[in-house]
Amino acid sequence: MARTRCDRTPAWAQLQAAYAATGKSFDLRDAFVQDAGRFERLSQSAPLVFADLSKNRIDAATESLLMDLARQSGVAEHRDAMFAGDKINNTEGREVWHVLLRTPAPASNDGSHRATELAKVHSTLNAMLAYADSVHADAAITDVVNIGIGGSDLGPQMAVVALDAFATSGKRLHFVSNVDGHELAAVLKKVKVESTLFLVASKTFTTIETMTNANSAKAWFAAQGGTDTARHFAALTTNVAAANAFGITTTFGFWDWVGGRYSMWSAIGLPLAIAIGSAGFREFLAGAHAMDEHFRTAPLEQNLPVRLGLLDVWYRNFHGFTSRSIAPYHSALRRLPAYLQQLEMESNGKQVDAEGAALPFGTSPVLWGEPGTNGQHAYFQMLHQGTDVVPMEFVAVKKARHDLALHQPLLLANVLAQAQALMVGKSDAGGHKNFPGNRPSTFLLLDDLTPASLGALIALQEHRVFVSGSLWGINSFDQWGVELGKVLAKDIEARIYSGDASGLDGSTAGLLARLRA
Ligand SMILES: O=P(O)(O)OC[C@H]1O[C@H](O)[C@H](O)[C@@H](O)[C@@H]1O
């Protein structure tokens, strides 16, 4: 696999020179004056998503150097290796094959490894969707409780909220992730044993939070007189044996080549399939597949995930911007920032390259945000007048699915106005009312928020994270950084019971004593 870390390419040095010569002083306002075709040149249609990149600090010359960077780093070859099923997750020796989860069923099986895996994908998908439809139609089940955390929570939760307008089951969906018992206790107060389905979602079926919540749910179920576990519990996992040992017989599997944060397209998507039905779930997959095909086949210059990923690197490594903020102007996308935090920061929050060598440049930005217009009345002050520049990503949806006449024009006016204000600014000699402007933003536009467009939007984000991670030369598909805290929590849990503070640092020992007093 021909992969060259971005800083070892000739384009990297050329970009450094370009940044010093024109990039640093680049002014968006001048750029629009000088180039009447800027909007057309820097906007991009991709399946179900339109992107305006023109309010970003790039011009044709920079984009062309960034394309050289992509070519010299081997991004396309790396992408093709992912689609082909090479084991690009090298630290775990696994394929990175979530795209297979949304690949249509093949007409025939040629016996290859890929065809075998794809056949498994479709037989599991068919079983999972048949089950989803049976639950969907089962009026005796009124509440579905998904117990899972991280990738086994954020994706399905975000999508269920986002597609509420398509929810036809009439069921209440609850998501319990935190080991904090307040979360599960609050849900258990609201549900009844005979009308509740618990979904235990865990790729590994070992995650302590999920196992603790699942055990407590099981104990509650038995204490309430529940007996039919097969009807009231299902497991979504790659570790079916552990689910069986736990006492769950209704299981839907997936495979170790599906990363947790890339798993909502697998059995982990069951809550969404129950909420919107199997046809809606298939549209969700189809939207993502359309974006996969765009990413796989569009020339780099017209490839939206590639253009976004390159921009991310330009901002992080040349401009030195340390965060990116996402503002979805659709209240149903309110869980999108949380979802994208895991996608971006767990994938690309790495300090060594895939070979383990320390990186001499920054990687994952901090990703954060809230839905618009709420954020405007909270932290947009800092975006407009703070000392740091934060590239913004606006997500707007043209169509509203309500009939409150005045709201949608006002919402859309606000998202346009914020992007405009960040760029144009306003001078005031007095200082306090001075807006520097020239603050960059990307504008993603969906015609309508549907299962298909949500699928496309999420696949777009997955692939742009792939592109920046690929350029940085890192493995975007492991997450060793979460392990140390897990190990230490086990040690401290024992000390919470025993009070033994031997060998602890002074702060941890002091806090332990206070918590036990
Ligand atoms: O699905 P599970 O195996 O329970 O894992 C749940 C989550 O916890 C882990 O610690 C990882 O940080 C996440 O990538 C993962 O999604």
From TrEMBL:
Keyword Iron-sulfur: no
Keyword Isomerase in record: yes
Pathways per UniProt: Carbohydrate degradation; glycolysis; D-glyceraldehyde 3-phosphate and glycerone phosphate from D-glucose: step 2/4; Carbohydrate biosynthesis; gluconeogenesis
GO terms, biological process: gluconeogenesis; glucose 6-phosphate metabolic process; glycolytic process
Cellular location(s): Cytoplasm
Known catalytic reactions: alpha-D-glucose 6-phosphate = beta-D-fructose 6-phosphate
Gene: pgi
Entry superkingdom: Bacteria
Organism in which the protein naturally occurs: Rhodoferax lacus
Classification via PANTHER family: GLUCOSE-6-PHOSPHATE ISOMERASE
Pfam families assigned: PGI
Any one cellular-component term (Gene Ontology): cytosol
Catalytic site positions: 346 (proton donor), 377, 486
Function: Catalyzes the reversible isomerization of glucose-6-phosphate to fructose-6-phosphate.
EC number in record: 5.3.1.9
Listed CDD domains: SIS_PGI_1 (cd05015), SIS_PGI_2 (cd05016)
Gene3D superfamilies with a match to the protein in the record: 1.10.1390.10, Glucose-6-phosphate isomerase like protein, domain 1
Record-given protein name: Glucose-6-phosphate isomerase
Organism lineage: Bacteria, Pseudomonadati, Pseudomonadota, Betaproteobacteria, Burkholderiales
Entry's Gene Ontology molecular function annotations: carbohydrate derivative binding; glucose-6-phosphate isomerase activity; monosaccharide binding
